[in-house]
Amino acid sequence: MVDSESEGDAAADASRRDARERDRADPLADFRERFEIPDDYYMDGNSLGPISDAAEESLQRAVDQWRDQAIRGWTGSEPPWFWYGERLGEELAPLVGADPDEVVVGNSTTINIHTLVGTFVDAREPDEPRGVLVNDLDFPTDHYAIQSQLRQRGLDPDEHLHLVESRDGRTIETEDVIDAMDTHDVGIVFMPSVLYRSGQLFDIEAITEAAHERDILVGFDLAHSIGVVPHDLSEIGVDFAVWCSYKYLNAGPGAVAGLYVNERHFGESPALAGWWGHDKESQFELNLDFTPAGDAGAWQAGTIPVFSAAPLFGALELTHDAGIDVIREKSVDLTTYLIDLVDEHLAERGVSVGTPRDPTRRGGHVALEHPEAERISEALRDHEVVVDFRPPNVIRVAPAPLYVRYEDVYDVVEIVADIIDEKRYEKYEAAGDVT
Protein backbone atom coordinates (compact mmCIF):
# COMPACT_ATOMS: atom_id res chain seq x y z
CA MET A 1 0.00 0.00 0.00
CA VAL A 2 1.34 3.46 -0.89
CA ASP A 3 1.44 6.17 1.79
CA SER A 4 -0.16 9.58 1.21
CA GLU A 5 3.11 11.38 0.55
CA SER A 6 4.04 8.85 -2.14
CA GLU A 7 0.58 9.15 -3.60
CA GLY A 8 1.03 12.90 -3.74
CA ASP A 9 4.41 12.58 -5.43
CA ALA A 10 2.98 10.16 -7.95
CA ALA A 11 0.10 12.49 -8.75
CA ALA A 12 2.51 15.39 -9.18
CA ASP A 13 4.72 13.35 -11.49
CA ALA A 14 1.68 12.35 -13.54
CA SER A 15 0.57 15.99 -13.78
CA ARG A 16 3.98 17.13 -14.92
CA ARG A 17 4.14 14.32 -17.50
CA ASP A 18 0.75 15.47 -18.77
CA ALA A 19 2.05 19.04 -19.14
CA ARG A 20 5.11 17.84 -21.04
CA GLU A 21 2.97 15.71 -23.31
CA ARG A 22 0.86 18.76 -24.12
CA ASP A 23 4.03 20.66 -24.96
CA ARG A 24 5.26 17.89 -27.26
CA ALA A 25 1.98 18.05 -29.17
CA ASP A 26 1.98 21.87 -29.36
CA PRO A 27 2.11 23.12 -33.00
CA LEU A 28 3.51 26.45 -31.75
CA ALA A 29 6.29 24.96 -29.60
CA ASP A 30 9.12 26.08 -31.87
CA PHE A 31 8.12 29.76 -31.67
CA ARG A 32 9.38 29.97 -28.10
CA GLU A 33 12.95 29.82 -29.42
CA ARG A 34 12.31 33.02 -31.38
CA PHE A 35 11.88 35.06 -28.17
CA GLU A 36 14.26 36.28 -25.48
CA ILE A 37 12.46 35.40 -22.24
CA PRO A 38 13.93 37.53 -19.44
CA ASP A 39 12.72 35.38 -16.54
CA ASP A 40 12.05 31.73 -15.86
CA TYR A 41 8.30 32.26 -16.19
CA TYR A 42 7.13 35.33 -18.10
CA MET A 43 3.36 35.60 -17.63
CA ASP A 44 2.98 39.33 -18.26
CA GLY A 45 2.66 39.44 -22.04
CA ASN A 46 -0.73 41.12 -21.71
CA SER A 47 1.17 44.17 -20.45
CA LEU A 48 4.36 43.94 -22.51
CA GLY A 49 5.42 41.14 -24.79
CA PRO A 50 9.10 40.13 -24.91
CA ILE A 51 11.44 40.80 -27.80
CA SER A 52 11.65 38.31 -30.66
CA ASP A 53 14.48 37.83 -33.13
CA ALA A 54 12.24 39.05 -35.93
CA ALA A 55 11.24 42.25 -34.12
CA GLU A 56 14.84 42.99 -33.23
CA GLU A 57 15.94 42.41 -36.82
CA SER A 58 13.31 44.77 -38.24
CA LEU A 59 14.27 47.43 -35.71
CA GLN A 60 17.96 47.01 -36.53
CA ARG A 61 17.13 47.25 -40.23
CA ALA A 62 15.57 50.67 -39.62
CA VAL A 63 18.60 51.78 -37.59
CA ASP A 64 20.89 50.66 -40.40
CA GLN A 65 18.76 52.53 -42.93
CA TRP A 66 19.05 55.69 -40.84
CA ARG A 67 22.83 55.24 -40.69
CA ASP A 68 23.23 54.47 -44.39
CA GLN A 69 20.57 56.65 -45.97
CA ALA A 70 19.70 59.37 -43.47
CA ILE A 71 16.87 61.44 -44.95
CA ARG A 72 16.75 59.29 -48.07
CA GLY A 73 15.24 56.56 -45.88
CA TRP A 74 11.83 58.23 -46.07
CA THR A 75 11.47 57.12 -49.68
CA GLY A 76 14.50 54.93 -50.40
CA SER A 77 14.32 52.38 -47.60
CA GLU A 78 12.44 49.10 -47.90
CA PRO A 79 9.77 49.52 -46.83
CA PRO A 80 9.85 53.33 -47.19
CA TRP A 81 9.39 55.08 -43.86
CA PHE A 82 6.93 57.43 -45.55
CA TRP A 83 4.52 54.51 -46.05
CA TYR A 84 5.07 52.71 -42.73
CA GLY A 85 1.57 53.43 -41.45
CA GLU A 86 -0.17 52.10 -44.52
CA ARG A 87 2.14 49.11 -45.03
CA LEU A 88 1.71 48.02 -41.41
CA GLY A 89 -2.02 48.58 -41.77
CA GLU A 90 -2.05 46.06 -44.61
CA GLU A 91 -0.22 43.57 -42.38
CA LEU A 92 -2.61 44.11 -39.48
CA ALA A 93 -5.84 44.04 -41.49
CA PRO A 94 -6.23 40.21 -41.47
CA LEU A 95 -5.91 40.13 -37.68
CA VAL A 96 -8.92 42.42 -37.25
CA GLY A 97 -10.89 41.18 -40.22
CA ALA A 98 -10.73 44.35 -42.28
CA ASP A 99 -9.83 45.58 -45.73
CA PRO A 100 -6.28 46.99 -45.91
CA ASP A 101 -7.43 50.55 -46.50
CA GLU A 102 -9.56 50.41 -43.33
CA VAL A 103 -6.51 49.95 -41.09
CA VAL A 104 -3.54 52.19 -40.42
CA VAL A 105 -0.78 52.38 -37.84
CA GLY A 106 -0.10 55.66 -36.06
CA ASN A 107 -0.30 57.68 -32.87
CA SER A 108 -0.88 56.06 -29.46
CA THR A 109 -3.98 54.24 -28.28
CA THR A 110 -5.13 57.22 -26.21
CA ILE A 111 -4.62 59.65 -29.09
CA ASN A 112 -6.58 57.34 -31.37
CA ILE A 113 -9.45 57.28 -28.88
CA HIS A 114 -9.38 61.06 -28.83
CA THR A 115 -9.48 61.45 -32.59
CA LEU A 116 -12.00 58.71 -33.37
CA VAL A 117 -14.49 59.40 -30.58
CA GLY A 118 -14.21 63.12 -31.32
CA THR A 119 -14.75 62.47 -35.02
CA PHE A 120 -17.89 60.46 -34.47
CA VAL A 121 -19.37 62.79 -31.87
CA ASP A 122 -18.97 65.51 -34.49
CA ALA A 123 -20.53 63.26 -37.12
CA ARG A 124 -23.81 63.08 -35.23
CA GLU A 125 -26.49 65.44 -36.49
CA PRO A 126 -27.43 68.34 -34.17
CA ASP A 127 -30.75 66.71 -33.32
CA GLU A 128 -29.21 63.25 -32.71
CA PRO A 129 -27.96 61.92 -29.36
CA ARG A 130 -24.28 62.66 -28.76
CA GLY A 131 -23.73 60.80 -25.51
CA VAL A 132 -21.11 58.06 -25.24
CA LEU A 133 -21.78 54.74 -23.52
CA VAL A 134 -18.87 53.09 -21.70
CA ASN A 135 -18.62 50.80 -18.67
CA ASP A 136 -17.35 51.13 -15.12
CA LEU A 137 -14.63 48.48 -15.54
CA ASP A 138 -12.87 50.20 -18.47
CA PHE A 139 -9.19 51.01 -18.49
CA PRO A 140 -9.14 54.62 -17.23
CA THR A 141 -7.48 56.25 -20.25
CA ASP A 142 -10.58 55.49 -22.33
CA HIS A 143 -12.68 57.62 -19.99
CA TYR A 144 -10.09 60.39 -19.70
CA ALA A 145 -9.98 60.80 -23.47
CA ILE A 146 -13.74 60.65 -23.97
CA GLN A 147 -14.41 63.11 -21.15
CA SER A 148 -11.93 65.49 -22.73
CA GLN A 149 -13.55 65.22 -26.15
CA LEU A 150 -17.01 65.84 -24.69
CA ARG A 151 -15.84 68.90 -22.75
CA GLN A 152 -14.23 70.36 -25.87
CA ARG A 153 -17.65 70.23 -27.51
CA GLY A 154 -19.43 71.89 -24.62
CA LEU A 155 -20.92 68.59 -23.44
CA ASP A 156 -20.82 67.92 -19.71
CA PRO A 157 -19.38 64.41 -19.12
CA ASP A 158 -21.60 64.06 -16.07
CA GLU A 159 -24.57 64.23 -18.42
CA HIS A 160 -23.22 62.70 -21.63
CA LEU A 161 -20.82 59.96 -20.53
CA HIS A 162 -22.95 57.02 -19.48
CA LEU A 163 -21.69 54.02 -17.50
CA VAL A 164 -22.87 50.46 -17.75
CA GLU A 165 -22.40 49.13 -14.24
CA SER A 166 -21.00 45.70 -13.47
CA ARG A 167 -23.19 43.31 -11.51
CA ASP A 168 -20.28 41.48 -9.90
CA GLY A 169 -17.29 43.82 -10.08
CA ARG A 170 -15.63 41.54 -12.65
CA THR A 171 -17.72 41.42 -15.82
CA ILE A 172 -20.19 43.39 -17.92
CA GLU A 173 -23.33 41.68 -19.19
CA THR A 174 -24.15 42.15 -22.87
CA GLU A 175 -27.82 42.64 -22.06
CA ASP A 176 -26.92 45.48 -19.70
CA VAL A 177 -24.98 47.21 -22.48
CA ILE A 178 -27.97 46.85 -24.80
CA ASP A 179 -30.46 48.00 -22.17
CA ALA A 180 -28.34 51.11 -21.52
CA MET A 181 -28.61 52.04 -25.20
CA ASP A 182 -32.32 52.61 -24.61
CA THR A 183 -31.97 54.29 -21.23
CA HIS A 184 -29.69 57.20 -22.11
CA ASP A 185 -29.05 59.66 -24.95
CA VAL A 186 -26.50 57.37 -26.58
CA GLY A 187 -24.96 58.25 -29.93
CA ILE A 188 -21.81 56.16 -29.58
CA VAL A 189 -21.03 52.91 -27.77
CA PHE A 190 -17.35 52.45 -26.92
CA MET A 191 -16.39 49.22 -25.22
CA PRO A 192 -13.27 47.11 -24.78
CA SER A 193 -13.04 43.81 -26.57
CA VAL A 194 -11.52 42.34 -23.39
CA LEU A 195 -11.68 43.80 -19.89
CA TYR A 196 -8.17 44.57 -18.75
CA ARG A 197 -8.66 43.29 -15.20
CA SER A 198 -10.84 40.18 -15.44
CA GLY A 199 -10.10 39.13 -19.03
CA GLN A 200 -13.77 38.97 -20.05
CA LEU A 201 -14.20 38.84 -23.84
CA PHE A 202 -17.13 40.95 -25.06
CA ASP A 203 -19.70 39.85 -27.62
CA ILE A 204 -18.71 42.36 -30.29
CA GLU A 205 -21.22 41.12 -32.82
CA ALA A 206 -24.24 41.31 -30.49
CA ILE A 207 -23.31 44.77 -29.24
CA THR A 208 -22.72 46.09 -32.76
CA GLU A 209 -25.97 44.66 -34.10
CA ALA A 210 -27.97 46.12 -31.22
CA ALA A 211 -26.32 49.51 -31.59
CA HIS A 212 -26.94 49.73 -35.32
CA GLU A 213 -30.57 48.76 -34.86
CA ARG A 214 -30.82 51.94 -32.79
CA ASP A 215 -28.81 54.12 -35.20
CA ILE A 216 -25.92 54.21 -32.73
CA LEU A 217 -22.28 54.10 -33.80
CA VAL A 218 -20.03 51.56 -32.10
CA GLY A 219 -16.29 51.34 -31.49
CA PHE A 220 -14.01 49.00 -29.56
CA ASP A 221 -10.68 49.12 -27.76
CA LEU A 222 -8.88 45.93 -28.86
CA ALA A 223 -5.78 46.43 -26.70
CA HIS A 224 -6.21 43.14 -24.83
CA SER A 225 -7.33 41.02 -27.76
CA ILE A 226 -5.38 41.91 -30.88
CA GLY A 227 -2.80 39.23 -31.57
CA VAL A 228 -4.49 36.60 -29.41
CA VAL A 229 -8.14 36.72 -30.53
CA PRO A 230 -9.20 36.88 -34.20
CA HIS A 231 -11.69 39.58 -35.18
CA ASP A 232 -14.11 40.21 -38.06
CA LEU A 233 -14.70 43.94 -37.72
CA SER A 234 -15.73 44.66 -41.31
CA GLU A 235 -18.07 41.71 -41.62
CA ILE A 236 -19.74 42.56 -38.32
CA GLY A 237 -19.91 46.21 -39.33
CA VAL A 238 -18.04 47.79 -36.41
CA ASP A 239 -17.66 51.51 -37.05
CA PHE A 240 -14.20 52.05 -35.56
CA ALA A 241 -11.59 50.47 -33.30
CA VAL A 242 -8.24 51.20 -31.67
CA TRP A 243 -5.45 49.08 -30.20
CA CYS A 244 -1.86 49.01 -29.03
CA SER A 245 0.86 46.71 -30.37
CA TYR A 246 3.10 46.06 -27.36
CA LYS A 247 1.01 43.36 -25.67
CA TYR A 248 0.26 40.16 -27.60
CA LEU A 249 1.74 41.64 -30.78
CA ASN A 250 5.13 41.92 -29.03
CA ALA A 251 6.28 45.07 -30.84
CA GLY A 252 8.06 46.65 -27.87
CA PRO A 253 7.52 49.27 -25.15
CA GLY A 254 5.68 52.32 -26.44
CA ALA A 255 5.25 50.73 -29.86
CA VAL A 256 3.07 52.59 -32.32
CA ALA A 257 -0.69 52.02 -32.04
CA GLY A 258 -3.25 51.19 -34.71
CA LEU A 259 -6.78 52.04 -35.71
CA TYR A 260 -9.62 50.80 -37.89
CA VAL A 261 -12.32 52.88 -39.56
CA ASN A 262 -15.07 51.21 -41.54
CA GLU A 263 -14.94 52.34 -45.16
CA ARG A 264 -18.46 53.79 -45.00
CA HIS A 265 -17.01 56.55 -42.82
CA PHE A 266 -14.20 57.55 -45.14
CA GLY A 267 -14.44 61.28 -45.73
CA GLU A 268 -15.39 62.23 -42.18
CA SER A 269 -13.21 65.02 -40.83
CA PRO A 270 -10.72 63.74 -38.24
CA ALA A 271 -11.12 65.42 -34.87
CA LEU A 272 -7.33 65.68 -34.51
CA ALA A 273 -6.08 66.56 -37.95
CA GLY A 274 -2.36 66.47 -38.63
CA TRP A 275 -0.08 66.55 -41.60
CA TRP A 276 0.57 62.79 -41.58
CA GLY A 277 -3.13 62.21 -42.23
CA HIS A 278 -3.01 64.39 -45.33
CA ASP A 279 -3.53 62.85 -48.77
CA LYS A 280 -0.13 61.32 -49.49
CA GLU A 281 -0.01 62.36 -53.14
CA SER A 282 -0.15 66.07 -52.26
CA GLN A 283 1.24 66.03 -48.74
CA PHE A 284 4.49 67.74 -49.69
CA GLU A 285 2.75 70.53 -51.55
CA LEU A 286 2.39 71.82 -47.97
CA ASN A 287 -0.93 73.55 -48.51
CA LEU A 288 -2.41 75.21 -45.45
CA ASP A 289 -5.78 73.62 -46.14
CA PHE A 290 -5.99 70.04 -44.88
CA THR A 291 -6.90 67.45 -47.51
CA PRO A 292 -7.45 64.18 -45.64
CA ALA A 293 -6.41 60.85 -47.05
CA GLY A 294 -9.31 58.96 -48.59
CA ASP A 295 -9.02 56.00 -46.23
CA ALA A 296 -8.15 55.20 -42.61
CA GLY A 297 -4.84 56.98 -43.13
CA ALA A 298 -6.68 60.27 -42.60
CA TRP A 299 -6.69 59.61 -38.83
CA GLN A 300 -2.91 59.67 -38.55
CA ALA A 301 -1.73 62.86 -36.92
CA GLY A 302 2.00 63.36 -36.44
CA THR A 303 4.95 61.89 -38.29
CA ILE A 304 5.29 58.14 -37.91
CA PRO A 305 7.81 57.26 -35.14
CA VAL A 306 10.00 54.98 -37.23
CA PHE A 307 11.79 53.19 -34.39
CA SER A 308 8.52 52.62 -32.52
CA ALA A 309 6.95 51.17 -35.66
CA ALA A 310 9.77 49.14 -37.20
CA PRO A 311 9.69 46.22 -34.71
CA LEU A 312 6.05 45.63 -35.58
CA PHE A 313 7.03 44.37 -39.05
CA GLY A 314 9.02 41.50 -37.54
CA ALA A 315 6.51 40.87 -34.76
CA LEU A 316 3.68 40.52 -37.27
CA GLU A 317 5.79 38.14 -39.34
CA LEU A 318 5.78 35.72 -36.39
CA THR A 319 2.07 36.19 -35.75
CA HIS A 320 1.21 35.43 -39.36
CA ASP A 321 3.58 32.47 -39.48
CA ALA A 322 1.86 31.00 -36.43
CA GLY A 323 -1.67 31.84 -37.63
CA ILE A 324 -4.12 33.78 -35.51
CA ASP A 325 -6.59 30.88 -35.36
CA VAL A 326 -3.89 28.51 -34.09
CA ILE A 327 -2.79 31.15 -31.57
CA ARG A 328 -6.36 31.49 -30.33
CA GLU A 329 -6.78 27.73 -30.03
CA LYS A 330 -3.66 27.38 -27.91
CA SER A 331 -4.58 30.43 -25.85
CA VAL A 332 -7.93 28.88 -24.96
CA ASP A 333 -6.22 25.59 -24.11
CA LEU A 334 -3.62 27.31 -21.91
CA THR A 335 -6.12 29.41 -19.99
CA THR A 336 -8.44 26.42 -19.55
CA TYR A 337 -5.49 24.37 -18.29
CA LEU A 338 -4.56 27.15 -15.87
CA ILE A 339 -8.11 27.42 -14.54
CA ASP A 340 -8.30 23.65 -14.06
CA LEU A 341 -5.02 23.66 -12.11
CA VAL A 342 -6.21 26.54 -9.95
CA ASP A 343 -9.39 24.66 -9.12
CA GLU A 344 -7.38 21.55 -8.28
CA HIS A 345 -4.48 23.06 -6.34
CA LEU A 346 -5.19 26.65 -5.34
CA ALA A 347 -8.90 26.90 -4.54
CA GLU A 348 -8.32 25.28 -1.15
CA ARG A 349 -5.66 27.92 -0.52
CA GLY A 350 -8.09 30.79 -1.02
CA VAL A 351 -7.42 31.51 -4.69
CA SER A 352 -10.44 31.95 -6.96
CA VAL A 353 -10.83 32.59 -10.69
CA GLY A 354 -12.29 35.98 -11.61
CA THR A 355 -12.33 35.32 -15.35
CA PRO A 356 -15.27 33.80 -17.22
CA ARG A 357 -14.90 30.04 -17.49
CA ASP A 358 -16.70 29.90 -20.82
CA PRO A 359 -13.82 30.19 -23.34
CA THR A 360 -16.03 32.15 -25.75
CA ARG A 361 -16.20 34.86 -23.08
CA ARG A 362 -12.50 34.82 -22.20
CA GLY A 363 -9.54 36.66 -23.68
CA GLY A 364 -5.90 35.69 -23.26
CA HIS A 365 -5.30 36.13 -19.53
CA VAL A 366 -6.75 34.79 -16.29
CA ALA A 367 -7.49 36.84 -13.18
CA LEU A 368 -6.59 35.01 -9.98
CA GLU A 369 -8.19 36.56 -6.92
CA HIS A 370 -6.79 36.39 -3.40
CA PRO A 371 -6.86 38.80 -0.42
CA GLU A 372 -3.05 38.92 -0.51
CA ALA A 373 -2.81 39.24 -4.29
CA GLU A 374 -0.45 42.21 -4.23
CA ARG A 375 2.08 40.64 -1.88
CA ILE A 376 1.84 37.26 -3.63
CA SER A 377 2.61 39.04 -6.91
CA GLU A 378 5.74 40.54 -5.37
CA ALA A 379 6.81 37.15 -4.03
CA LEU A 380 6.28 35.60 -7.45
CA ARG A 381 8.65 38.08 -9.07
CA ASP A 382 11.38 37.07 -6.64
CA HIS A 383 10.75 33.48 -7.77
CA GLU A 384 11.33 34.47 -11.42
CA VAL A 385 7.58 34.49 -12.14
CA VAL A 386 6.51 37.76 -13.75
CA VAL A 387 2.83 38.56 -13.39
CA ASP A 388 1.09 41.79 -12.47
CA PHE A 389 -1.28 42.96 -9.78
CA ARG A 390 -4.46 44.93 -10.31
CA PRO A 391 -6.31 46.39 -7.32
CA PRO A 392 -7.91 45.34 -5.20
CA ASN A 393 -7.17 41.60 -5.32
CA VAL A 394 -6.22 40.39 -8.81
CA ILE A 395 -3.09 38.62 -10.02
CA ARG A 396 -3.19 38.68 -13.81
CA VAL A 397 -1.59 35.63 -15.40
CA ALA A 398 -1.16 35.72 -19.17
CA PRO A 399 0.10 32.46 -20.72
CA ALA A 400 0.87 33.98 -24.13
CA PRO A 401 0.71 31.19 -26.74
CA LEU A 402 3.83 32.01 -28.76
CA TYR A 403 6.30 31.50 -25.92
CA VAL A 404 4.58 30.02 -22.83
CA ARG A 405 4.58 26.24 -22.33
CA TYR A 406 2.05 24.09 -20.54
CA GLU A 407 4.77 23.02 -18.12
CA ASP A 408 5.40 26.69 -17.34
CA VAL A 409 1.75 27.04 -16.30
CA TYR A 410 2.02 23.93 -14.16
CA ASP A 411 5.17 25.26 -12.46
CA VAL A 412 3.63 28.66 -11.77
CA VAL A 413 0.66 27.09 -10.00
CA GLU A 414 3.06 25.02 -7.90
CA ILE A 415 5.06 28.13 -6.98
CA VAL A 416 1.90 30.03 -5.98
CA ALA A 417 0.87 27.13 -3.77
CA ASP A 418 4.28 27.10 -2.10
CA ILE A 419 4.25 30.87 -1.53
CA ILE A 420 0.87 30.63 0.16
CA ASP A 421 1.68 27.51 2.19
CA GLU A 422 4.96 28.93 3.46
CA LYS A 423 3.49 32.44 3.81
CA ARG A 424 6.44 33.79 1.84
CA TYR A 425 4.36 36.83 0.86
CA GLU A 426 4.37 38.12 4.45
CA LYS A 427 7.77 39.76 4.08
CA TYR A 428 6.43 42.09 1.39
CA GLU A 429 4.47 45.29 1.93
CA ALA A 430 1.40 46.16 -0.10
CA ALA A 431 2.63 49.19 -1.99
CA GLY A 432 0.64 49.22 -5.25
CA ASP A 433 1.63 48.14 -8.75
CA VAL A 434 2.83 50.52 -11.44
CA THR A 435 3.33 48.06 -14.30
UniProtKB/TrEMBL annotation:
<keyword id="KW-0662">Pyridine nucleotide biosynthesis</keyword>
<comment type="function">
    <text>Catalyzes the cleavage of L-kynurenine (L-Kyn) and L-3-hydroxykynurenine (L-3OHKyn) into anthranilic acid (AA) and 3-hydroxyanthranilic acid (3-OHAA), respectively.</text>
</comment>
<comment type="pathway">
    <text>Amino-acid degradation; L-kynurenine degradation; L-alanine and anthranilate from L-kynurenine: step 1/1.</text>
</comment>
<dbReference type="GO" id="GO:0009435">
    <property type="term" value="P:NAD+ biosynthetic process"/>
</dbReference>
<dbReference type="Pfam" id="PF22580">
    <property type="entry name" value="KYNU_C"/>
</dbReference>
<dbReference type="InterPro" id="IPR010111">
    <property type="entry name" value="Kynureninase"/>
</dbReference>
<dbReference type="GO" id="GO:0030170">
    <property type="term" value="F:pyridoxal phosphate binding"/>
</dbReference>
<dbReference type="GO" id="GO:0030429">
    <property type="term" value="F:kynureninase activity"/>
</dbReference>
<comment type="similarity">
    <text>Belongs to the kynureninase family.</text>
</comment>
<dbReference type="GO" id="GO:0005737">
    <property type="term" value="C:cytoplasm"/>
</dbReference>
<comment type="pathway">
    <text>Cofactor biosynthesis; NAD(+) biosynthesis; quinolinate from L-kynurenine: step 2/3.</text>
</comment>
<protein>
    <recommendedName>
        <fullName>Kynureninase</fullName>
        <ecNumber>3.7.1.3</ecNumber>
    </recommendedName>
</protein>
<keyword id="KW-0663">Pyridoxal phosphate</keyword>
<feature type="region of interest" description="Disordered">
    <location>
        <begin position="1"/>
        <end position="30"/>
    </location>
</feature>
<dbReference type="InterPro" id="IPR015424">
    <property type="entry name" value="PyrdxlP-dep_Trfase"/>
</dbReference>
<dbReference type="GO" id="GO:0043420">
    <property type="term" value="P:anthranilate metabolic process"/>
</dbReference>
<dbReference type="InterPro" id="IPR015421">
    <property type="entry name" value="PyrdxlP-dep_Trfase_major"/>
</dbReference>
<keyword id="KW-0378">Hydrolase</keyword>
<dbReference type="InterPro" id="IPR015422">
    <property type="entry name" value="PyrdxlP-dep_Trfase_small"/>
</dbReference>
<feature type="compositionally biased region" description="Acidic residues">
    <location>
        <begin position="1"/>
        <end position="10"/>
    </location>
</feature>
<feature type="compositionally biased region" description="Basic and acidic residues">
    <location>
        <begin position="14"/>
        <end position="30"/>
    </location>
</feature>
<dbReference type="GO" id="GO:0097053">
    <property type="term" value="P:L-kynurenine catabolic process"/>
</dbReference>
<dbReference type="GO" id="GO:0019441">
    <property type="term" value="P:L-tryptophan catabolic process to kynurenine"/>
</dbReference>
<comment type="subunit">
    <text>Homodimer.</text>
</comment>
